[in-house]
Amino acid sequence: MTTATQRPEVNAALTKEQLLRMYRRMYSIRQFEEHANDLYLRALMPGLTHLYEGEEAVAVGICEALRPDDYITSTHRGHGHCLAKGAAPNRMFAELLGKEAGYCRGKGGSMHIADPATGNLGANAIVGGSAGIATGAAFSAKKLGNGRICVCFFGEGALGQGVLYEVMNMAQLWKLPVIYACENNMYNEYTHYSETTSGDILSRPAAFGLPAESVDGQDVRAVHGAASRFVEHARAGAGPAFLLCNTYRYRGHHVGDINREYYRAKQEEQRWSSERDPINILGDWLVQQTLADSAQLERIQTEVKAEMNAAMEFAIAAPYPTVDEAEQDVYA
Amino acid sequence: MPETAAQTTVRELTFGEAIREALAEEMRRDARVCVIGEDVAEAGTPFKVLSGLVEEFGKERVIDTPISEPGFTGIGVGAAMTGLRPVVDIMFGDFLTLVMDQMVNQAAKIHYMSGGTWKVPMVFRATMGATRRSAAQHSQSLHAWPSHIPGLKVVLPSTPYDAKGLLKTAIRDDNPVVFFEDKMMYRLKGPVPSEEYAIPFGVADIKRAGTDITLVATSSMVQVASGAAKLLEEIGISAEIVDPRTMWPLDEKTLIESAKKTSRAIVIDEGYHRYGVTAEIASVIAEGAFYNLDGPVKRIGAMHVPIPFSPPLEDATVPSEKQVFEAARQLCGKS
């Protein structure tokens, strides 16, 4: 089991309100994904979806360090990023079900949720496909002088895509305000990353001169601390950075990836969920620090569950787009 | 050219100068327009099409990149989504193969996939055309590829006038536009008014009026068709030349009307004819003008081979005046 090689000091002072918000957001993502899985099992969801359970602290810790007008790009495993940046669960469920009320009017689905209102440039179903877009958003932010930054979320599978290195090179040459957030959940689909990744991951961005750090991706406070420093660095005009978040994907590559013992052991999965769960880690810490008691956390959980149920029911009841929608929005 | 009717001051510009002027005017008009690509600044591209732009607009807006086509094209996509209007320079159209993901999976689909919420107002300027002795990886005409993709618009100007007016429209369009410049035409001269004008997409231009046969020709093939038309005139055949100017949107109406009028049509394009632009246009004409046609719609495109280096071989791969003349003569039943 890989955990963080380095535990950066949490230097951004987090208020109790922020900590509780992060707890709620992580729990919201967890519940959203449980409901998404449920929709799949009930055969209510067309196609497949890729669940983010286990990785919640990465999206939440990083997005908590951003401004509402900052940009993100997301991945095929993108629900967590979208929710952490402020997307409404009812419109997300509607998109998962291909409904008119969805963020993309049902045309994008789970892997393409995009929302200009929350700075979400879109989830992307090409691995590494959003690296250029994220760097381009940082490019225009710098040219337009609007003070925004962009976070490019990607999994460690994208380390195999050449375009990532091309844009990191340009981002550093031009000092663009972009943070490359690599979520190492250890599996490129069905293959352990050690079989696909040579050398040391952090040496790659370092070769381009990017500040690069590794962080415990199960500890939302650590993620937030590292992200905050890089956000400050980017916002100050000092250029891009690379944050490697070591994390774990609780479920399969997608909801249909049930029998997966050929590539990883059940014991490994159990160890992560029982010992390294990001929600429990923060919850335990909050109780220890007397910032919250267990009743308070349970109340949050009850509220979130009700919210997610309502959001899911909204989506189930929502109408599909009419067929004439198929030919709309091909061109602006 | 009806667009010139009201113009008074007309100069002779080369194709390359017309493109540069369009870019410069749009960059003056709109601070969001920028140029991104390899050797676009001081070098002004290997074809010198962009010479002088960096002097006027500076390196902040005329941006030299590393040799990283997918990377800088992807940056163009993101920049277009977030407030700029980038013109991305793909030095050789052959390198479109390198940027396919950014162009096809990203730029073309983002507006649709996002339910119409994000827009990608960018231009891909790419070269095309053989006979420059550049061999198989620097000579292809790949405009059929983007023409196949919903979400992209594809432009093939054939004159300096069209190049300037169409490039201005491309830059002002809110969609990704792929703009193909035949590199063998950069020195071609033609009249260009000094007054402001833009040419709308989806409007074909009748480059030569005629009555016996329609020659649909794109880009540099308009010159080939013009040469053939002169030869045909000598044997009493009156050829009409229709230049669609944009592959998509395609002015199907003008193509069909011309074919109905002349009752015969040949489509000439420098891309491969198999599964190419000629196939699409020929089928549009066949479907739309079938009952008025006196013969099958003929297609002439590049020979279905990688472009060879050796001059006599290379020259044989592209459509020629003679080839067009012969095909037209046969179609018109003249011996």
Features:
heterodimer; A: about 325 residues; alpha/beta; Rossmann fold; two-stranded antiparallel ribbon; B: about 325 residues; 2 domains; seven-stranded mixed beta sheet; five-stranded mixed beta sheet; 11 helices; globular
The radius of gyration of chain B is: 20 Å
Approximately how much beta-strand content do the residues of chain B carry?
15-25%
Spatial arrangement of strands, main beta sheet of chain A: 1-2-3-7-6
- Basic shape of chain B: globular
CATH 4th-level superfamily of the largest domain in chain B: Thiamin diphosphate (ThDP)-binding fold, Pyr/PP domains
What name does the CATH topology of the largest domain in chain B carry? Answer: Rossmann fold
CATH-scheme architecture of chain A: 3-Layer(aba) Sandwich
Q: What's the mean pLDDT score of chain A?
A: 95
- Helix and strand run of chain B: EHEHEHEHEHEHEEEEHEEHEHEHH
Query: Which CATH architecture of the largest domain in chain B?
Result: 3-Layer(aba) Sandwich
| CATH C-level of chain A | Alpha Beta
Q: What oligomeric state do these chains adopt? A: heterodimer
> Runs of chain A with pLDDT <50, length 5+?
1-11
Over the alpha carbons, how many angstroms does the gyration radius of chain A reach? 19 Å
Gap between N and C termini of chain B:
34 Å
**How would a crystallographer describe the biggest sheet of chain A?**
5 strands, parallel
What can be said about this structure in brief?
Chain A is α/β, with parallel strands linked by helices and 332 residues long. In chain A, 42% of the residues lie in helices and 9% in strands.
